[in-house]
Amino acid sequence: MTGGIVSTTGMTEIILTALKQTVYMVFWATVFSVILGFIPGVILTLTAPDGLKPNKAVYEGLSFVVNVFRSFPFIILLVILIPFTRMIIGKAIGTTASIVPLTISAIPFIARIFENSLRETTPGVIEAARSFGASDLQILFFVYVKESIPRMLNGIVLLIISLIGYSAMAGTVGGGGIGDIAIRFGYQQYKTDYLVVCSVLLILFVQLIQMLGNHLYKRLS
């Protein structure tokens, strides 16, 4: 009986630590990718054929770069970015190190979502703002961005859910997290209880994020 209690306690500690690692990785990767992804998203919107500053060369060039990075499988990107991660963080292994490839994989994803969200702004609203003498910068922030906030929020929710899935692969570089525990203990060591608990936690985590996102979307809309 005592052995079972000790085993359960040990399992709880391991999974709680892994959950904290997952939240840590996903939170910071989301913050950095949203900040860095907003820039190319805006540039793509402005330089698009129907944008405020159409520029075919810039749009197609940046769009190509975004598509190239989006096409990389995350597990391959993890390996390719090891030297870059080591240069930025000082090491290529660990939970903090995993944030680098997670962020870089998410930037093109969220940039494209931001572009699509911004470009869905009603043309009539843009023309109305222009007729009142608004500058391009004012139109960008007070029309494009303001009108797109609910759609952009939906995109961020999708990003977080994707990052939760990607974080499960972070164990290949010693990143830890729920996915790593599920694979190492649940799959490799045939401990079904770990696999079940980790799977349930990931499902609940995703559901919680989606519910929160839906609630905020309704409030903002």
Kindly describe this structure.
Helix 4 packs across helix 5. The protein has a single domain, classed as MetI-like fold (Orthogonal Bundle). Helix content is 82%, strand content 0%. The chain is mainly alpha-helical and 221 residues long. The N and C termini lie far apart (54 Å). The chain is built from nine helices and no strands.
Q: Write the CATH homologous superfamily.
A: MetI-like
User: Which radius of gyration do the C-alpha atoms yield?
Assistant: 21 Å
Beta-strand percent range: under 5%
Count of DSSP helices?
Answer: 9
Identify the CATH architecture: Orthogonal Bundle
Briefly note the CATH topology name: MetI-like fold
Global morphology: elongated
| Number of domain modules | 1
CATH class, named: Mainly Alpha
> Distance between the terminal alpha carbons, to the nearest Å?
54 Å
Structure class:
mainly alpha
Outline the low-pLDDT stretches.
1-6
The largest sheet, given as strand count, sense and whether it forms a barrel, is:
none
The overall average pLDDT, rounded, is: 87
Short description:
Helices cover 82% and strands 0% of the residues. With 221 residues, the chain is mainly α. It is built from nine helices and no strands.
Topology:
Layout (H helix, E strand, L loop, with lengths): L1 H46 L8 H16 L2 H7 L1 H8 L5 H25 L3 H9 L4 H32 L10 H10 L4 H29 L1
Offer a few descriptive terms.
221 residues; mainly alpha; MetI-like fold; 9 helices; 82% helix; disordered N terminus
